[in-house]
């Protein structure tokens, strides 16, 4: 794929999807959707399904920090359900848009209270970055049709890596970094 969408393009589309899915408008992309804008867990589930359908990507089943902790085999990131200093550091490295918010004694679920439109745009960007230039079986170039990956000639939808695959790749690379 030649040029993935920018974070700004993704943020605009995600704000539109959130509005359509929940009836709530989002005008600032840096505000926590749950903590500051009042989205509840049902809103976020509805929005996640809508984003998956719209973009053709599937979010990971488990939070990246939980997956990384499993790969590490210890409790350096999360102790007694709360992020450690290292856990916070890793979270901020993965989600730098959360640096503006106060979060002490935060659980993974509490961290999700801070997700912004920018957080979701960055997540979507990871899917685009993981797409190959060419479709594996046909060798056709991959292009975007309304932000969904398809083959250039036959216009066949391209199955991107799953969110679980991307999180596992990230966790494996972080294990090396934290070793």
Could you explain how this protein is built, in words?
This protein has 179 residues and is mainly α. Helices cover 47% and strands 7% of the residues. It has one domain. The chain contains seven helices and four strands. A hairpin with a 2-residue loop joins strand 3 and strand 4. Helix 3 (64-72) packs across helix 7 (163-178). It is globular, with a radius of gyration of 17 Å. The protein starts with 6 loop residues before the first helix and ends with a helix. The model has no long low-confidence stretch (mean pLDDT 93).
Keywords, separated by commas or semicolons:
single chain; 179 residues; mainly alpha; two-stranded antiparallel sheet; two-stranded antiparallel ribbon; 7 helices
Overall pLDDT confidence:
93
- Counting helices, strands and paired strands, the structural category is mainly alpha
Number of domains: 1
**Strand arrangement across the biggest beta sheet:** 1-2
Major sheet summary line: 2 strands, antiparallel
* Ends apart, CA distance between termini: 33 Å
- Number of beta strands: 4
User: Could you spell the SSE succession in H and E letters?
Assistant: HHHEEHHHEEH
Low-confidence stretches: none
Morphology: globular
Q: Number of helical segments? A: 7
How large is the radius of gyration?
Answer: 17 Å
